[in-house]
Amino acid sequence: xxxxxxxxxxxxxxxxxxxxxxxxxxxxxxxxxxxxxxxxxxxxxxxxxxxxxxxxxxxxxxxxxxxxxxxxxxxxxxxxxxxxxxxxxxxxxxxxxxxxxxxxxxxxxxxxxxxxxxxxxxxxxxxxxxxxxxxxxxxxxxxxxxxxxxx
Length: 151
Hints:
- The chain has about 150 residues and is of the alpha+beta class.
- It has one domain (about 1-150): 2-Layer Sandwich (Alpha-D-Glucose-1,6-Bisphosphate, Chain A, domain 4), CATH 3.30.530.
- It contains three helices and seven strands.
- It has helices at about 15-20, 115-120, 125-150, and strands spanning about 1-10, 35-40, 50-55, 60-70, 75-85, 90-100, 105-115.
- The chain has a seven-stranded antiparallel sheet with strand order 1-7-6-5-4-3-2.
- β6 (about 90-100) and β7 form a beta hairpin.
- It is globular and about 45 Å long.
- It starts with a strand and ends with a helix.
């Protein structure tokens, strides 16, 4: 397993960031890295909620995500257990939130298993690419949380 971990201080309340993350089925409304998101089953939040995401730009890269841990305003763990046209066989994404009302610390930890030996050899390159993409995700998350807090 490989690991990419990012930690950033965000200029928004923890509750606002959680509200965006907890709107689990609507990630495609604010994350331009996701072309489409489809709920799987009836659960829209909490442990057991599932979604199928199609990644931008063309939606050919797909993944099924399942929430495996949900601690409101503190932690969400998402298992990625089915992928299409991606270099990842499986992964776990952990979001950890701490801090207060004006700023908060956001930690994103992505543990993944490359799909093949070739992708394993390219691990350092994948790590850098994932890191860039995840930094963009955090930027968008912060902006969306700030926008929702202002309304």
